[in-house]
TrEMBL record:
<dbReference type="GO" id="GO:0005737">
    <property type="term" value="C:cytoplasm"/>
</dbReference>
<dbReference type="GO" id="GO:0006526">
    <property type="term" value="P:L-arginine biosynthetic process"/>
</dbReference>
<keyword id="KW-0560">Oxidoreductase</keyword>
<dbReference type="Pfam" id="PF01118">
    <property type="entry name" value="Semialdhyde_dh"/>
</dbReference>
<comment type="similarity">
    <text>Belongs to the NAGSA dehydrogenase family. Type 1 subfamily.</text>
</comment>
<dbReference type="InterPro" id="IPR036291">
    <property type="entry name" value="NAD(P)-bd_dom_sf"/>
</dbReference>
<dbReference type="GO" id="GO:0051287">
    <property type="term" value="F:NAD binding"/>
</dbReference>
<dbReference type="InterPro" id="IPR000534">
    <property type="entry name" value="Semialdehyde_DH_NAD-bd"/>
</dbReference>
<dbReference type="InterPro" id="IPR000706">
    <property type="entry name" value="AGPR_type-1"/>
</dbReference>
<dbReference type="GO" id="GO:0070401">
    <property type="term" value="F:NADP+ binding"/>
</dbReference>
<dbReference type="GO" id="GO:0003942">
    <property type="term" value="F:N-acetyl-gamma-glutamyl-phosphate reductase activity"/>
</dbReference>
<feature type="domain" description="Semialdehyde dehydrogenase NAD-binding">
    <location>
        <begin position="3"/>
        <end position="141"/>
    </location>
</feature>
<keyword id="KW-0055">Arginine biosynthesis</keyword>
<protein>
    <recommendedName>
        <fullName>N-acetyl-gamma-glutamyl-phosphate reductase</fullName>
        <ecNumber>1.2.1.38</ecNumber>
    </recommendedName>
</protein>
<comment type="function">
    <text>Catalyzes the NADPH-dependent reduction of N-acetyl-5-glutamyl phosphate to yield N-acetyl-L-glutamate 5-semialdehyde.</text>
</comment>
<dbReference type="InterPro" id="IPR023013">
    <property type="entry name" value="AGPR_AS"/>
</dbReference>
<dbReference type="InterPro" id="IPR050085">
    <property type="entry name" value="AGPR"/>
</dbReference>
Amino acid sequence: MIRVGIVGGTGYTGVELLRLLLPHPEVEVAVITSRGEAGQRVDGLFPSLRGHTDLKFSAVSGKDLQGLDVIFFATPHGVAMEMAPELLAAGVRLIDLSADFRLSDAALFAEWYHQEHSSPALLPQASYGLPELFRDEIRGSRLVANPGCYPTAVTLGFAPLLEAGLLEAGGLIADCKSGVSGAGRTARLGLILPESADSVTAYGVSGHRHRPEIEETLSRIAGADIQVQFTPHLMPMIRGIHATLYGRLHKPMSNEALQDLFAQRYAQEPFVDVLPFGEHPSTRTVRGANVCRIALHQPRPGQVVVLSAIDNLVKGAAGQAVQNLNVLFAWPENLGLAQIPLLP
C-alpha cells in the first residue's frame, strides 16, 4: 500500500479525488492540505464523507510531504510548479491536476496563463496524462500532467481519425458544453443559480487557454500542425462535458468503416465506450463515472461528426488522475474506478 497526499483539498476536484481514493485498495490518503481550513475535519466541510474518513485539513510545507509516495496537486495554476522541484528531488511522484505542466513551451504557458513558469526545466520530464494515448510514457514517469477536462473530451474524439491520417488538417471544430463545476468552487456572480439557470452562454470564443493544449496534443498525434476552432459554452448543469466535433475526411468512408475504426481503436480501453453508429451520448449517462462515451455520425459523405461526453470532475479530472496513478504502479487500470454512472 502506498501513502498519498492531496494538496488543495477544498475544491471540487480535491474532494472528488478523496471520494475516489478513500476506497482504493492500494492507497492510504495520509495528508490533505488547506491553509484556510487547517485543523478542520474534512467531513465537517464535506458531510458526504462522514463515516469514511477521520482526516483533518492541514497546512503543511513541501518538507512535510516528502515522506509520501505520490502527491496529487488539486491547486490553482502556479502552485505545483513552485513545489515540484523539491518534492521530485526527494523521490516523490507527482500528479498535477492544474495546467502547470500540460504545455511543453514555457512561453506559451506564460502567454495563456499570465504568469512566468518557475520550473521550465521540468517541462520535458512531464508526461501528458491521457492513458489512452500516452500510457507507455506515463508508466515510467515521475511527473504526470493531468489533462484538462475539455482537452480530454476533444482529444479522445478526434484521436482515431488523426492517428489514421483521415482528417483534413484545416477546419476542425470543437463545439463544447460544460457544467458550472468546471469553473471551480469559488463563488462568482455568473455561476450562482439565478445567473446560470435557464441560460446557455458561450465564452472564450476568441481564445480559451485549453485551445493550445488541445492543439499541441492533436498535433503530436497527427505528426503535423493542427488548428482547432474551440468554443466552450456554460450550461445550466453541475457536472458534465459534451463535445461536438466536426471534421472533413480526405475521402468519404462508409459508416461501417468509421465505426470499425473507433471500435477497434478503443476495444481494449476500459474507460472509452464507443456507442453504435448514429447514437447520441448525453452527459447524464457518464455522471460520477470515469468514462468517455463516443458516437459517430456522417451527415454527408466525407463530413464526420464525433460526439464525446465525459464527467468533467471524473474522467476530466480526478478519475483520470486515479487512472494515471494505477498506470504508474502497474495496477489494473480500473482499480478503484468501477463506479457505475448515477441516474437520474
